[in-house]
Structure formats: C-alpha cells, structure tokens
Amino acid sequence: MDNIPPAALADLKALLGERVLTEPGALAAYGRDATPLFRHAPDVVVQPLTTEEVAGVMRVATRHRVPVTTRGAGTNLCAATVPLSGGIVLSTTRMTALKEVSRDEMLAVCEPGVTAGALNRAAAAEGLIYVPDPGSKEASTIGGNVATCAGGLRGLKYGVTRQYVLGLEAVLPDGEVIRTGGRLVKDVAGYDLTRLLVGSEGTLAVITEITMALVPNPAAARYGVAYFETMADASEAVRDIVASGPAPATLEFMDTVCIAAVEDFAHLGLRVDAGALLLFGDDGEPDAVDRSVARMAEVCGKRATHIELAASIAAAEDLLAARRCNLPALARSGSMTILEDVTVPRPKLAEMVAFIAATADKHAVRIGTFGHAGDGNLHPTAVVDADDQQAVEAALAAFDEIFRHAVDLGGTITGEHGVGAAKLPYLEHRLGPEQMALLRRIKGAFDPLGLLNPGKLGS
Amino acid sequence: MSESVSETMSEQTGPADSRGIFSKDLLDACISCGFCLPACPTYALTGQEQSSPRGRITLMRLLETGDLAPDDATLAEESSLCLGCRACETVCPAGVQYGHLLEEWRDEQWSGLKRPWIVRPLLLIANRKWLLRILGLVRRSARKRRRTAPDQPTLMLGCFERGLFPSVSRSIAALDPNLAVDPDQGCCGALHAHNGELEKGRDLARALGVRLPGTIVTTSGGCAAHLADVIGRDRVVEASEWLLKHNADSESRPLRVGLQDSCHLRNGLGVWKEPRDLLGRTATYVELPSAGSCCGAAGTYALVRKKESKAILAKKIAEIEAADLDLVIAVNPGCLRQLQTGLRKAKSRTKAVHIVDYLAQITRQ
Q1: How many domains does chain A have?
Q2: What is the CATH number of the domain that holds A16?
Q3: Which of A211, A301, A402, B146 is least enclosed by beta carbons within 10 angstroms?
Q4: Residues B157-170: what's their mean pLDDT?
Q5: Quick check: is A454 in a domain?
Q6: Can you tell me the distance from the alpha carbon of A265 to that of A260, in angstroms, rounded to the nearest whole number?
Q7: In this structure, are residues B156 and B217 in contact, taking their beta carbons and an 8 Å threshold?
C-alpha cells in the first residue's frame, strides 16, 4: 500500500468489516471502467450500505487525507471512475433500496446503487416511465447516471438526466450530510446545488439518495426509417424535421460504415448501399403520433432515396435494435473500440459529419459515426487493433482534431458521456481559462483537501 | 502493490507478454462495457466487480500478462465462485464466449493438485467406462437396444445420471421405441471441461461421437451443450427438442407445473422454448420468475461452493413455494438433484422431476 496509511485501513475495517476489499486481484478489477486505455488500481475498495456508513468512510478519508473515487457500475466511457491517485474506491452497488415510487407526485426516491433499468420497471408498474434512456441502462446505476448526467435516445423531446433530478442527499468530504432540492417542481430557495451536483462526476460530494421525477408512459409509439445518399442529406432532413413542428422523440442516424456493420451483425434487411440511415419516431397519443410520423416521412421525402414506415411492433423493434447495436456491431471488427461523444448545434451537423469522415481518412483510421441527430450528439467510433500502437495513436490524433473542431463549430467535447480523465485535457478549450478557474474555486468550496476523485473535474 | 499492477496493466493481451493460457481472440473480444453485470448471479450476491464476468475477464487478462501471480488469491477464489452458467453470454453485445474462457481459465487454475479435492473422485469415476457400465447395471438404467438402421438415433446415457437417476434413460427409451441404446459408452467430458481438464473433456466428447454414430439424443442440457460444441450442433439433440416432435397434446391439464432451465442448454444452445411447449401442452404451465437463471447446481458447484450454492437455491425454492406448484421440471440431472435436495429440506409439497420421467408418467396414464 503506498497511498493509504495502515491506520486508515484499520479505521475502515472497524467501520465496515468484511465490506473492505484489499486483495490485489480485487483492486485490479476496480482499476478500470468501460473506457479503454485508462488504468489505475485503488488501494482499497469499500462497500457501504447506508448514508451513515458513507459519512463514516468520508470522515476516515478526511482524517487520513486519502483520496476517494465513488463508483457505481463502472459503465462510463470517460474514465470518470478510474482512481488515478489510488486510495479508496467507494462502491455504491450495495445501496440498492428503492424507497418509494409515487404515482400521485410522479416521482421516485432511491439509493444510488439502483439500476436505471430497475427504476424504470418499478415506474412502469405505476404506469410511469423513468425518462433518461442511456444504452447502459440495465447495468448502470442511478447514482452514476446522475453523476455523469447520462443522456440517451430521448434527449431532443425529453431532455437528459438533469431535467429529472428533483432532489439529492449527498455526503461532503468531511462527512457532513446535505439535502438539496426536494420533491418540488418549483423551488428557487438558494443556489441550484442539485444541478451543480448533477454531472459533477464524484468530485464535489458522494450522492447517497436521489429524488427523481417520472412521467406517464406514452400511449403509443411509431417509427420509420429513411435512407439517403449522403450524411449531409440526412443532416439537412433532420434540420427540416425539427423546424417543421414539435420535437419528435426519436431522430437517430448512422453512416454507411455503421449500416454495413449492423447489417453484417444483425441481418435486419438494411440497405447497405445507402450513405446514411435516419431512424425517426415519436410517442404520445395515437392520433398525434400518426400525424407526427407522417409529417417526418413527408419532410424526408424531398431528399430520401427510400422511406419505410414500421408496420408492426416487431418491425419497429427491429429498427430500434438496429440503432442500439451500432456499438457492438462495430466493436466486433477490432480489439479496441474508442467511442466518442461530440455535440454540435443542429445546423452544423452536416459540416461536422463531413469533417469526421475527412479526418478519419487523413489519419487512415476506420471511424463509423452514429448518433442522436435530433440533439446534435454524435458518436464517432474508431475500431483499431489494440496491439498496433501506431493505429491507436492515429485514432487518438484524429479524435484530438475532431474535439477541437466540434468546439470551433460552437459545439462541445462531450454531450452525454462526461469529462472524466479522458476529456480533461480538452476541457479548457471548451470552457476557457476563466471558467476553469471558477470550476476549481467551486471544487475548493466543497472539497478543500481535494480528496474526491482527484485528477478529474475541478483539478 | 496497486502501482505495480496498474502501471503494467495492458489494454489487451499482447503477443510479447502473454503466457498462452487463453485464446487471444476470445480474450480480446471483451470491450469491458459492463452490460454483463446485471445478468451475473454471483455479481448479484456480492456487488463486487471481480465477481462479475467483466471483472473476471480483467483478472484473466492480468493472469495472461503475468501482472497477477498464478497463485493470486482472487484468481483462485473467482475461478471457483463463477457458476459457469453463461448467462452473461446472452446479454453480451460483443459476443464474448465467456464459457470457453472459463474452461481455459480452469484448465490452468485447477490443473493437477490445484483442483478442488471434492471434484477429483468424480472425474476419476467418469473416466472409467467399465465403472459407468456397472453403475448402469446395478441401478438399472435403460437396457441395450441395437441400432438397426443408419438413420436411427442413439441415446446418450450420461455418466452420473446412470447412477443417480436411472429412470430417466428408461423413460425416454419407453417414450421413443426407435431410440438405440448402447450401454458400452463413456462420459461426454463436460464434467472434465468445466473442471480444469479441457483437452480430456474434448477427447471424451470426440470418443463418444465415434462410439455413437449419427444423431445423439441426450437427457442432460449441460452434456448437450458440451457435446454440440465439440462434435457439432447438427449431431446433438436434447430430449425436449427430440420429444417435441414425437409427443401429442394431452386433453386434460390437471397439474400445475414449473420449469428450471438448464443454463448451458438455454444460454449455450438457445433451447428454452421446447421444454415450455412440451409442458404447456400437457399441464398448466407456470413460468417461475427466475426459471432462466441458475439454480446453483452448476455441475460440481454445489459441492465446491456449498454456501453460495445454497444462497442461490434458497431464492429459487422460495419462488417455487410461492407459485404453489405440483411439479418443478428439470432438463439436466444436476439441476434435478439440486432442486430435489432444496425441496426436501424445505418440506415442500412440490416435487422435482426430470422432463422425460414426467412425460413417460403422463403418457402411461
């Protein structure tokens, strides 16, 4: 152990007993999350069960000056939960109480280790849904979703995690417990600390309870697919669709690299000769959904080479499956997959997509692009041979240019994955030196000793 | 400690620093997305990363690169704590063949004297064809029935099933008079492959494939998956798949019946609909909430990891009790033994029965 004094370890064991892991193998397993390339093992892993135990862990950490990295399921893609300075990994996976689902107030109260899928199923039993819809929802925890402000396929119409968090309970580094927000839709008493903690990636406090708004389950949903000769045509169709009426629930696209990979993997009958595929859909009352989908098909019709409306639920599910299996379909073609997450204003979509393709060619990297076209969120994904160091470096060089160009177009370096350790080098390019300094002062106000997730936001 | 492990942790196995324990392409397939976590019964028990499929693959990678010592305590613990149920494979977006990785891992981790002592005598018995034959004679498993036509299928008798559940082979022989029976056959080797003797396990499967030409019908889901993996899916048919073609509807449906899937049959061969169809035609079928997940028998697991096996079984028994079933049906001898033990201890009114015995019984009535 280099980073944790034996006395701190003894205090943790006195507090949590067997729920303190120190075997090298166990620590190594906690040395990574879903992000390629970033590795660092902690010195100890703790599994508290209650807010009081979390507070106890934080008091030990403060007393002995040991860094703490909070971790849910570890499915994030920005190395947010890799403990770069070692120390304690605080795992929330055993804090799984779903305390309340209220139909009357349309909200749920749960501990951070509940998975997004479990919360959604509990909501469904009351005729409600948990809106944020990240690809990892069956595995990822609500605590992690809040800490990274997870997005998903419903962003354009419904927003992302931050729009649904009503209140939080959190433990500060010295063990103090705070409660921000509450159960109210309207509440402007004080700074909005709830929103500050959402997306703070475990750098300000440890979230121990979440009060989450739920919405009624839409009565109907319909989908269609349009094919285009180029991604530029698809991007223009997206712009026209959004301009032509209320925001639809689903506007997802994928480029020709992705179409080929998905068809090869899932055999769904996609048109592999197309340059772009746009999946569109909406949910709500049946009549309104029909009108919305018809309108989108009509707008696409000006530019699309082919349009199909899903006639059945099975056909719709095939379309959604096609979009969701982009990542695995691409991942099968190489041993390392780097999935990125830039976002640009919708009018700049075509330009950004063209830049990504040109940059991939320039660096001779295979990059497939898919994403949430409706909200401008793109997932350029490089698949390389992990043993080929030159190919890995070429991919990283390509992404370096892609991040910078996204910011230059008025976009951002990450739409929904988070900053973590992976994007920290680009953060100043996005925020500027003044905001970076303010971020550090905010971090200092919460965590003067710099113990929470060092080497990430605010460091 | 943490520094030395982390600094040298490589992304994937490189050719320069690999120990050759694992097939590189199998190990490289994992993208560490973590989608397997909610499918894993042992991760549900511990909530700990190293007890998840992704965490175990991280351990395998560190064993392969030499960053964890072969005698590392977590390697020993996790290679044994894993049920080998392969539920993770069904949710893996990257198509990782976890079952094969576990076989390769145990081939290293449980080689020779490192094998759990309780498993050793079982492998010794299964190795001896003459012993299995005597077992069959003493316990009266299905009698010899010569193969008369080249397209005639042959019944696989199983190794321990002959001793533990001899009625099963008798029942399927009665249900299908066209099945040939050859008592002079050995073990399929699934037991070996899952317990650290991968090559031996494959050899035994190949030998069985030679001894029993043409289609082989088996009453054990676990054996079916292993045998199909070695000699080809086209030559292996599991009993519920087979009997679905031969069995007619029953007019009355007097019994409330549930099912326990065989993990390898469901997750390895994708056979889960067939036993449900068979039961739905002949009884009031009740789907148990966790019918598709492991009962904790998991081959030798119930012997090697008694505590965890019991913890997993306890949930299952509570579900069966809540469903108020007459019968719970198994499609694999290990699951059958596990459920019978659990139900007996719980003094349940529900009986656990092999699907073939169940069908033979209702056909006779």
Answers
A1: 4
A2: 3.30.43.10
A3: B146
A4: 90
A5: no
A6: 9
A7: yes
Judgement on whether residues A301 and A281 belong to the same structural domain of the protein = yes
Q: For chain B, first and last CA: distance in Å?
A: 67
Query: ipTM, 2 decimals?
Result: 0.93
Whether residues A387 and B58 touch (CB distance < 8 A) is answered with: no
Q: Is A65 exposed, middle or buried (0-12, 13-18, 19+ CB in 10 A)?
A: middle
Is the torsion defined by CA of B287, B290, B295, B299 positive or negative? positive
Give the model confidence (pLDDT) of A217-266 as tens digits: 999 999 999 999 999 999 999 999 999 989 999 999 999 999 999 898 88
Residue B250 has pLDDT above 80, yes or no: no
A427 and A365 in a common domain = yes
Taking residues B297-306, what's their average pLDDT?
93
Are B213 and B182 spatial neighbours (Cβ–Cβ below 8 Å)?
no
Q: Please, which pLDDT band fits residue B113 given cuts at 50, 70 and 90? A: confident
**A456 lies in some domain:** no
Compute the residue count for chain B.
365
Percent residues over pLDDT 70 in chain A: 100
Domain that holds residue A41: 6-91
- With 0-12 / 13-18 / 19 or more C-beta atoms within 10 angstroms meaning exposed / middle / buried, residue B77 is middle
Residue A308 and residue A20: Cα distance in Å, rounded? 55
A chain contacts of residue B78, beta-carbon cutoff 8 Å: 25
Q: Where are the alpha helices (DSSP H) in A244-279?
A: 256-266
| A263-304 residue pLDDT tens | 988 888 899 999 999 999 999 999 999 999 999 999 999 899
Q: Does A328 touch chain B (CB under 8 A)?
A: yes
| Chain A (373-402) residues lying within 8 Å, Cβ to Cβ, of chain B | 386-387
Q: Give the domain CATH number at A370.
A: 3.30.70.2740
Determine, yes or no, domain membership for A122: yes
- The model's pLDDT over B3-21, given as tens digits with 9 standing for 90+, comes to 334 333 444 444 457 889 9
Same domain, yes or no: A40 and A114: no
Whether A365 and A419 share a structural domain: yes
| Mean pLDDT, residues B185-196 | 92
Q: Is A34 on the interface with B (CB under 8 A)?
A: yes
Cβ distance B2 to A40 less than 8 Å, yes or no, reads yes
Question: Is A452 inside a domain boundary?
Answer: no
> Which among A27, A45, A114, A265 is the top mutation candidate for probing chain B, defined by the most B β-carbons within 10 Å of its own β-carbon?
A27
What residues of chain B have any CB closer than 8 angstroms to a CB in chain A?
1-3, 5-7, 9, 11-12, 14-15, 28-29, 31-38, 47-50, 55, 58-59, 62, 67-68, 72-75, 77-78, 91, 93-95
Strands (E) in B151-302, as ranges, are 154-156, 180-181, 216-218, 236-238, 256-260, 284-285
Tell which of A60, A91, A122 closes a domain: A91
Q: Residues A153, A200: one domain?
A: yes
Nearest to A215 by CA among A147, A127, A291: A127
| Chain B residue numbers touching A33 (CB-CB < 8 A) | 32, 34
Q: Note whether A229 and A307 are same-domain residues.
A: yes
Q: Which residues pair with A339 in a beta bridge?
A: A381
Q: Nearest-CA distance from B237 to chain A in Å?
A: 26
CA A295/CA A244 separation, integer angstroms: 8
What's the CATH number where A319 sits? 3.30.70.3450
Domains plus CATH for chain B? 2-109 (1.10.1060.10), 120-243 (no CATH), 248-364 (3.40.50)
Name the least confident of B42-46, B137-141, B270-274.
Answer: B137-141
pLDDT digits (tens, 9 = 90+) for A13-60: 999 999 999 999 999 999 999 999 999 999 999 999 999 999 999 999
Q: Do A238 and A188 reside in the same domain of the chain?
A: no
By the 8 A CB rule, do B52 and A32 touch?
A: no
Average pLDDT over residues A359-386: 93
